């Protein structure tokens, strides 16, 4: 049986097709929420530093 996740192991992530306004980006940065925007091919692209850090920490990169 898998062990339950703890709050310190979770990363909030948001995806959009339409982009984020500056207020949303600022709030996400304050709350450490990773923001991604889907490109025309449906591939998530990092929007903020938290999203880029998330990709680095998890061995991923946009488009892979």
Give the tags.
64 residues; alpha+beta; 3-stranded mixed beta sheet; 2 helices; 30% helix
- Helix and strand composition category: alpha+beta
- Counted up, domains total 1
> Taking Cα atoms only, what radius of gyration do you get, to the nearest Å?
13 Å
Tally of contiguous helical segments: 2
**Overall 3D shape:** globular
What is the CA–CA distance across the termini? 30 Å
Spatial arrangement of strands, main beta sheet = 1-2-3
Care to count the β-strands? 3
- Average pLDDT reading: 89
Order of helices and strands: EHEEH
Percent of residues in helices comes to 25-40%
The unreliable regions are none
Strand coverage percent: 15-25%
Oligomeric state of the chains in view? single chain
User: How many strands, what sense, and barrel or not for the largest sheet?
Assistant: 3 strands, mixed
Q: In words, what does this structure look like?
A:
By secondary structure, the protein is of the alpha+beta class. Helices cover 30% and strands 19% of the residues. It has 2 helices and 3 strands; from the N terminus they run βαββα. It has a 3-stranded mixed β-sheet with strand order 1-2-3. It starts with 12 loop residues before the first strand and ends in a 7-residue tail after the last helix.
What's the structural blueprint in terms of helices and strands?
Layout: E1 13-16, H1 22-31, E2 34-38, E3 44-46, H2 49-57
Parallel strand pairs: 1-2
Antiparallel strand pairs: 2-3
């Amino acid at each position: 049986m898998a062990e339950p996740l703890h709050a310190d192991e979770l990363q909030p992530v948001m995806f959009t097709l339409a982009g984020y306004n500056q207020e949303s980006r600022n709030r996400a940065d304050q709350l450490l929420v990773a923001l991604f925007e889907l490109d025309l091919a449906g591939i998530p692209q990092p929007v903020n530093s938290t999203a880029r850090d998330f990709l680095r920490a998890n061995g991923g990169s946009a488009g892979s």
